[in-house]
Amino acid sequence: MNVSCQYEIGTLKTAKVYGLVKMIIWDKMMWILKVIACLVVCKAVLGAFPWKKINGRCYHYSEDKQNWFTAERKCREIGGYLAKIEDAAENTILYDNRPQGINGGHLWIGLSDLDEGQFRWSIDQELATNVNWVSWHKASNPGHNCVAMYYIGPSWLDWRCSSAFGYVCETDFCF
Hints:
By secondary structure, this protein is of the alpha+beta class. It folds into 2 domains: 1-48; 52-171, Mannose-Binding Protein A, subunit A (Mannose-Binding Protein A, Chain A, Roll), CATH 3.10.100. Helices cover 37% and strands 22% of the residues. It contains 3 helices and 8 strands, in the order αββαβαβββββ. It has helices at residues 3-47, 68-77, 88-96, and strands at residues 52-54, 57-66, 81-82, 107-112, 120-121, 146-149, 156-159, 165-171. Strands 1, 2, 3, 4, 5, 6, 7 and 8 form an 8-stranded mixed β-sheet that branches. Strand 1 and strand 2 (57-66) form a beta hairpin. The protein is elongated and about 75 Å long. Residues 54-170 form the C-type lectin domain.
């Protein structure tokens, strides 16, 4: 093989490697730009609503009185879901951190028994194992299929889903 042919083959190999490196760098830059765009959108959506970060989770309390289904949809629209209360400590924290304006009303949480007697969380359909019913309220009233946090204390009511209450949303990510 003569020298000029070797030079052309070497140039082609270099060009292919250079093109491949350029393509990899371009792909990485596009991925970084997509991540940045996603963060900007998340910040715009989540940051537009006051989220409280408590024990590693984020909560949004809304005084906007809605039925349970609309409250769930509104939570999803802002990047969350109706709150899933894992234990008594979280329940007390949610109650104690309510804004003062919400003191006069119940708050929807993400629990329902649309299948009567089977109380499940809307986010993952997990059966509720920790429940905190108001002592005087029967928790299995037919037609009462959605759960609200009682306004006087951190206990719960099984209530008509069509009732208009404030609500508390939850998400694992907030600014």
